[in-house]
């Protein structure tokens, strides 16, 4: 099990690094005073690649790890494939992390890796109705973007500056695509305490995936 998780993590980081490299290369080629005409990739497209990888890995983890702990090849199996389950308190129960927790763990590893490389690339899950405080919209940019995405249900993309560094940021809606999303969040003790009046419905925006790509100004 640990191996599977490790593999998914390693692959995610690898693919993100690749997407970011493509982005940087594209920017380096399109700006940088080069006289050669080159086919570049815009940050709008690069950020879509990163989002595709992040979403794909969360879905694959849910489908092929979390769900297989309950159901094996379509048949209910009381003890699952291995006697473990995906629970929020996985560190205490010896289970495996929920997909949202897995996502956050990945984003923490990516932030560390990016930091070591000095590339300042980050991503995170955020929500107006967050269970975990680390998912609250913090900057003015995140608050504004989250409000817009809650309303439109569409991705929001914009340049922003943080500490003198230019970023291209995108917030993609994270919608209630399964009944389990709605049920688990609406009945979660933290949700009930913090947002007693908020009842998620199917298809609704529950939060968003924010991706910040550092951009070198040409
Ligand atoms: C079994 C319960 C459970 C299910 C099912 C579930 N979530 Fe969550 N979700 C959580 C918990 C717990 C957190 C906080 C995780 C953490 O501590 O990082 C969370 C975090 C999130 C966040 C970040 C904001 C926050 O609340 O901290 C979003 C957005 C989110 N989930 C969306 C979804 C969507 C969309 C689905 C369905 C595809 C889903 N969740 C399914 C329990 C669940």
Features of the shown structure:
17% strand, 218 residues, binds heme C, single chain
Write up what this structure looks like.
- With 218 residues, the chain is an alpha+beta fold.
- It has one domain.
- Helix content is 48%, strand content 17%.
- The chain contains seven helices and six strands, in the order ααββααβαββααβ.
- It has helices spanning 2-30, 43-66, 90-93, 99-117, 140-152, 179-187, 189-194; strands spanning 71-72, 75-76, 122-126, 156-162, 165-175, 205-215.
- A four-stranded antiparallel sheet has the order 3-6-5-4, with helices on both faces. A two-stranded antiparallel sheet has the order 1-2.
- Helix 1 packs antiparallel against helix 2 (43-66) and helix 2 packs across helix 4 (99-117).
- The chain is globular and about 55 Å long.
- The protein starts with a helix and ends with a strand.
- The model is unreliable at 13-36 (pLDDT under 50).
- Heme C binds at residues 88, 98, 100-101, 104, 125, 127, 130-132, 135, 174, 176-178, 180-181, 184-185, 206-207.
Secondary-structure blueprint of this entry?
Blueprint: H1 2-30, H2 43-66, E1 71-72, E2 75-76, H3 90-93, H4 99-117, E3 122-126, H5 140-152, E4 156-162, E5 165-175, H6 179-187, H7 189-194, E6 205-215
Antiparallel strand pairs: 1-2, 3-6, 4-5, 5-6
Helix pairs in contact: 1-2, 2-4
Bound molecules: heme C.
Residues 88, 98, 100-101, 104, 125, 127, 130-132, 135, 174, 176-178, 180-181, 184-185, 206-207 line the site of heme C.
